[in-house]
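Archive record
______________

***
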Amino acid sequence: MLRGVEPSRLPPLLASMDDPNAVSNRERTTWQSEAERQSERGPRHWRRSLALVLGAVVALAVIGAGVVYWLQSRNYETTDDAFIDGYVTQVAPRVAGTITALQFTDNEHVAKGQTLVQIDPRDYQAKLDQARAQLANAQASRQQTEAQIGVLQANLDQARANVAVAEADLVQARQDYQRFTTINPHAVSQQQVDNATATFHSAEAKLNAARQAVAGAHAQLQAGHAQAVAAEAQEQEANANLASAALQLSYCMITAPVTGRIAHRNVDVGNYVSPGQAMFGIVQDDVWVTANFKETQMAGLKPGQPVRISVDAVPGVSFHGKVDSFQPGTGSAFSVLPAENATGNWVKVVQRLPVKIVFDDKRVRQHFLAPGMSVEPSVKID
């Protein structure tokens, strides 16, 4: 070793020259490091090869799955612009009044004809009683008119009989007059001739009067028949008023027009309602799917094609259905404000056509499907 210099401050090579043990230690350390590098290189190489193999397998699996999906999906037309649809019947009163009873609860399932709402009937009951009284009065007037017609007919018959009597008297008077005026004037007195003449003219006047009486009686009979017609019309009007009053009274009891489930109730006991005011709706049990397919998808769609329906509210369940019909116009054609394409600012946009899809699956009754729920139909095309 160099004198005056510490071994730790010497370069390693110089230190190893002076210290044989240091050389052996250094070589041992170098061999150990090389052995460790060789031992680590083997596992790393194996892991890299395994990763490459796994990556290739996954890539092939993804490609295969994509090919299978493409082969299957190319025979289907699907859309996510679809929803459950159904008829909703709005229930409104036909008469005004105060609600005295509600015989249902929110979201209750009701049957057709079931009583749902009761409106205070007292005003309409009073109108019904008044209509009954008017009908009785009209019936009495008709009966009285019919009785008068009988009297007028009797008067007419009597007047006609008087005409017959007057005609007979006239015949007798004419014969007397002719006899007294044609015989020898010296055989009768002038007074007899005057009496026969007066009797003859009086008979003529009486016959004319009788005939006038017949005409008057006939006119009165016709007037009686007209009054009878008027009385009958009044009776019919009274009958119509009675039926209308009874109908108005029946409207105080509101029944379910269809079978379904109560929805959107906005009335309660004590509320005053007016005719036509929406009180609640009834969602009918029959539902279907309205799917808005793009017009570019319509070429392969036909009525009767099978459909697989997935409902977001019922995960894991696929319902079966079929294409029922197509709406004869796109959604924009029936919008409140249709696009005005004649302004020169027209831009072509792919339109959508509503397609009605009906369920062909009994499991629909087992699940709660309400209008507005999102669905995704897949139509198998030919």
